[in-house]
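Anyone opening a protein record will find just a pair of labelled lines. A complete record is shown below as an example:
=====
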Amino acid sequence: MVKELLAQREAIVQYGRMALHSNDLPHILHEACRLTSEALGTEFAKVLELQDDGRMLLVVAGIGWKDGIVGHEKVPAFESSSEGFALKTGAPAVSDNINTEDRFNYAEFIKRHGVKSIMNVVIPGPDGRPPYGLLQVDSRKPRDFEQYDIEFLQGYANLVGAAIERNHYQRKLNEALSVQERMFAELQHRIQNNLTVISSLLQMKARKAVHPLVKQEISEIISSIQVLTDIYKQLYSSEKLGRIDLGGYLSSLCTRVTSFGSPQKQKVKIETKCDPLSIDAELAVPLGLVTNEFVTNSLKHAPEGHDLTISLTLSTDNNILSLQLADTGRGLGNAVDRKNREGGGSGLALIEGLLAQIKSEWEWSSRDGTELAIRLPLSVKVVQPGANH
């Protein structure tokens, strides 16, 4: 279960970052298919768009399918199909094995691809209008999808719906600059609300979880989602479209993570010194995730019964951003060397992967705890995972 939750966490983080700034709808839908397929371990995934007649669904995006399916294949939206059932009832349609399932009829192209199990959920339409369509995953093996798989896919579909709506309005906003900022802020707020819903579902899971490791992993998923939620909240309230007050954002992030994740008996002090700096949201996201991971690991590995100080220093000089994160904990020991040698240390690997994406320089040290010094030019362009460059 822990492995599946980690995959779902990564899918949510990647998609939230991408949907924040992309205006390429086909890419948004393709990434939704790719990331959900990877997170749920299925060979196929697809997005089906409900056509204007309300009777057919067109496969507009997909992963794993042969040529000629995406953009061409249509599925009837009748209640006798799993797709029609989901649209009519609003409930997920799950078939553990379509060869023994007698509730639904299945499209021939699904059978030709050797699909055995399917799960689909509704992608909501905007403002109470008809659904956009469906997000569906398909497996060649009989699968007993768990309830948390269904909840993850539905939460993801809600996020896809918000991203589709944002893209739709973005095109309109380009034609009417006078209303662009108001509508864009409303859409950022809506995506923020969807992230909050996903976080609430995970919090319910955390309360029900028995195993400490599962509780810990769920808490870290919630913390990563909260990083994205905070970005959207600041975008919604910012006077500068698409820009973030980085110092204020990172300072509030440190305070929130500390209050959420520190043991009750441990005294944690946060020290911040930040120059005023407004940066693009696409750069603030990876820096926020790095800070979140650093503080989370500082709390996780702090010496028991000892007070802990976490400091954050942000400055700029000649268009170079310098960010220093430090704590008074145990220090790194040989963690960096072990990660480089053995490929372990998921926290360090995640931090360094995010920093590599924004083409920054960084250095670890362990004098009186752990320290991470980051430097990068403010003109940097974020390198998206999987992009050709």
Notes: The radius of gyration is 22 Å.
